[in-house]
Amino acid sequence: MEVGDWVKVESDKKKIKHVQERTVTWDEGYYDAAGKVGQVQTTYPFNDVVRVSIGHKGYPLNISLVTKATAQDVHEAFGSGDVANPAVARGDMVKIGVSVDKLKRMQDGHGGFVDQMEEATGTIGSVSYIDRDGDVYVRFNVRRLCFNPDVLSRVTPVEDTFYVGDIVLVESDQDRFKLLQTEEHGGLNARMLLTCGKTGRLHSIVSQKRIRVKVQGKVWVFNPDLLTRMGNPGLGTGDWQSATICAPGQHDWSRGRCLLCAKCGECTHYGRLCPARGKPGRHPGSLCGCGNGDAGCDDCGYCRRCAGELQLRERDDDEQDDVMQKLLQLGGDIGGLFTGPLHDAFMEWLGKKGDKSDTPGHGRGDTPAPPREEMVPVLKKMGQAIELTRKSKSLDSLDALKNALENDCYAPFLTYKSIADRRLMADTLANVDGAQIFMDYLQLLSTTVSDGSNGDTIASSLQCIEVLQKLVIECTQMSFEFCRAVGRCGLLQMFVQDLVALQKDAQNQSTSPMIQPLLAIVANCARTPDNQECFTRCGAAEALKPYLRHKDANIRFITLSCLAFIVENQNMHLIRVNVDGAEQIVSLLKDALDHPNHDATVGTYSYPAFELATMLGGLVRNDENKQVFVTNGVVDLLIRLIEIGTDREKEAAIVCIQKLSYSDHISTIIKKETRAEQVLRAMKHDRGLSSVIRDIAAAALQILREGPPRVVEDPSGGPGRISTISYSDLTVNNVVGKGAFGQVCKGYHKKWMVDVAVKKLNSSSREQSIRRSKALMEEANFMYRARNANRFVVGLYGVCIEDTFTAMIMEYMANGSVGDLISRVKHVPWALKWRILQETILGMNFLHSLDPQIIHRDLKVQNVLLDEDFHAKISDFGLAEYKPLTSIGDEKGNLCGTITHIAPEHFKNPYMKAGEKFDVYRYIFQFCKLKFVYFGSSLGSIPGKKPYREIGIGGVIRERVMKGERPDKRQIPTEGPNELSFFVHLMENCWDQDAQERPTFRTLGEQVQVVTQKTNAQVAQAIQVVLKEQGDELHNIL
């Protein structure tokens, strides 16, 4: 029994129960499989179990309960094969046969209308496949699009020119190839010479001078003069069978209406058992007529059998499931792994998997092939080598052990190239406690080396350490499970400590061979989210920081790739990339895309396109990196990866574009200068892709168009409704601040994959809870009204209201408040202070420009927050009316906010409603804080002292303010930049006793802009000064 076989299940239910109860934990659902026909998904030879897919459900069945199906069985199970199909075949040449207006109407219910369809009008495309609903997917130059079959017309062009879908022969003369393949035609890559004399299939015509052709599994851009048209399958010319279009693992598999294989001529789904077999008029590429299933490869037309890729499912989303399945296959061959309770537990797990639905996808190369029989002895030898290592408590058998590890554990990773085989080997080592055993033995070897034993022993020990490091590199590169094991057992921490020990001699060339393997292991483990806590606990970011300055470019690159995954927001400066670094990474991604295996090399290490895209996703968390990468053309490369990559590569590229789009400025560039929006929109509607990819594309498209997730209208709730966020979607971490009503915590939204701030209410009496909940919703409503000012106002994502948890979910501001900044940093450079003041003005002007206006009422340094690049945004507005006054005694009325910041007219009339001049008066106290508190005067002001130096109680403050007294001007520095005198004059205008004489924020903005235009160029340097001064004291604060 092999994967891909069609089988029929025993119909006797009593027999099924009798046999199954001795095989797996019994489930009544097994009765549903009785007498049914299905396809073998996976085999478990050690347990005499096969998993059979029946109606999108997987049933683990004892092999004695299934027999190979006959054509009659398939006919009875799935019908006679009389399914009506559109009158087109794979490869047919078609064009849109209706007007654009009619096309828009007819596309309703057939995938909808997208802009590229209008672009495709008048051009000729090639049919890729037909989906389950009978809709036709056609590849035009713009991309593959889904159509209502009634809008398409078959065409037979007469002119002898290139068309999408053509079979073409690449020039065989390499010298002529090099001469003609110039930059004008896409440029020459040395690996392109491998295509000389090969036959491929035309994907798209970029221009009259550039044509994209898939040859040997890779899409290349060619000079048309290097191509000879051999025909087109849609015209009955051109030989699909002799073409070298695809390569193992590089097919473009589809699901939908079954077709006839271009090689064997049988159904792409049922093969020779197809119920429609023998019907007239069937030819390679034509519709089979039997119904829906596996539609084969869109490019070469082969079925999975002819391509040698019979895998039936995508990589499991749940890594643990994948590991368990592989462990199950190993049975009892490794140390009695499946005995007693452990065996029972696995059998129970297997039984529970019976009702899990498997949704096949549309990726190429993502699906790991099932383990082959030849892997069984390999895994057995691995287990024996691990057991030998476990028992070794001394170095008596060092050479024998080294040979066993090298020959039985490491060598197979070099012998077997299949990703599935390599992942299986690494998972196996993880689950037989390999990481812990390796750590114990490495410690023994390290002790021997450091103790200075005899020379031969030290040499052998160093060789064994090298073998173990190479083995761990392979395992961590292939298996998330092994990475998790390295983090759990302490091996990761040991490697980080080794890197710390090597820091002193890091620049010594002789230490590079010791540093590189350690960094490679750490970088591999960094891609596993479960290890984040381990990295934080062992101080990995600080340990790696010195290696960013290493003279070896390879070491710098590996370090950066590791930090891209592990640094937290307060250390974003560690992954800031300069222009040269960005160019190198972009160049590597381009090389990877040009390579048939989608990988590029740095030194001795290979970086797949998937890892480079994932690394970019980590690096662009730093906003400054977004600009430098976009400038270097990374978006076009990511789009290319989306279009030609595997499902994993598509996902990594889409997520990277999504993270780039978190910046309004960058998203504007992406929308104007790239095809990202069109590509994502088409992917969102491409039912040939897996639902996971479509969902990710839809989320990225929304963020590109509308910015990061903020407030979502609830159509059923009328205007002004704020989105609710489920607590299950949140991870609430450490407290970063406190307010009058509760705590502010750093959090993480699992679905959006972004850090968030969680402002939650403290538990209190019922009366207080009602009052505080009302206050929170009031603030949320104000933030909702200001949602379009995300550049100036802290963004609101939504609210979480559950039985025991009420919170507002907001944008996370990595550098805390302005108040936090001036308490952490003694000397904030003037340029940064001017920008903070200007951005506060712009934010307040926006709030005041709304209709109706938003009056903040409690503007102060604690309520102006700073993002990771020290841009200022306003928070906590509209809530002050609910806050008690500080030191105001029993004063009542409409007074609100901090007592020292209340304008004189409101002391005179406590019931006066606050207006925009009230906020202007309060604004100037932010100026006082930024200028006078930490930058003392000739009188020697004390750091941290309040603007009112001699005032301590509310009554005295009220009395003096009403008399016209203000904070002590003697604290103003006598020396400073030229702009200081301007801001002092601005300060005096803002705290004028007469509210009507105070300027508006619009006036302030116009005045301040003239000054800051001269100092903005110094802001970047000012931020570096701040980062250097705050050093290790920067904490996770909001």
TrEMBL record:
GO CC, any one term: cytoplasm
UniProt cross-references to SUPFAM superfamilies, sorted A to Z: ARM repeat, Protein kinase-like (PK-like)
Single Gene Ontology MF annotation: zinc ion binding
UniProt cross-references to InterPro entries, sorted A to Z: ARM-like, ARM-type_fold, Kinase-like_dom_sf, Prot_kinase_dom, Protein_kinase_ATP_BS, Ser-Thr/Tyr_kinase_cat_dom, Ser/Thr_kinase_AS, SH3_15
Region annotation (Disordered) ranges: 353-373
Record-annotated Protein kinase domain positions: 730-1010
PROSITE patterns: PROTEIN_KINASE_ATP, PROTEIN_KINASE_DOM, PROTEIN_KINASE_ST
Residues where ATP binds: K760
GO biological process, one term: protein ubiquitination
Superkingdom, taxonomy of origin: Eukaryota
Pfam families per the UniProt record, alphabetical: PK_Tyr_Ser-Thr, SH3_15
Keywords: ATP-binding, Kinase, Metal-binding, Nucleotide-binding, Repeat, Serine/threonine-protein kinase, Transferase, Ubl conjugation pathway, Zinc, Zinc-finger
Biochemical pathway: Protein modification; protein ubiquitination
SMART domains linked: S_TKc
PANTHER family according to UniProt: E3 UBIQUITIN-PROTEIN LIGASE MIB1, E3 UBIQUITIN-PROTEIN LIGASE MIB2
Stated name of the protein: Uncharacterized protein LOC118429440
Gene name linked to the record: LOC118429440
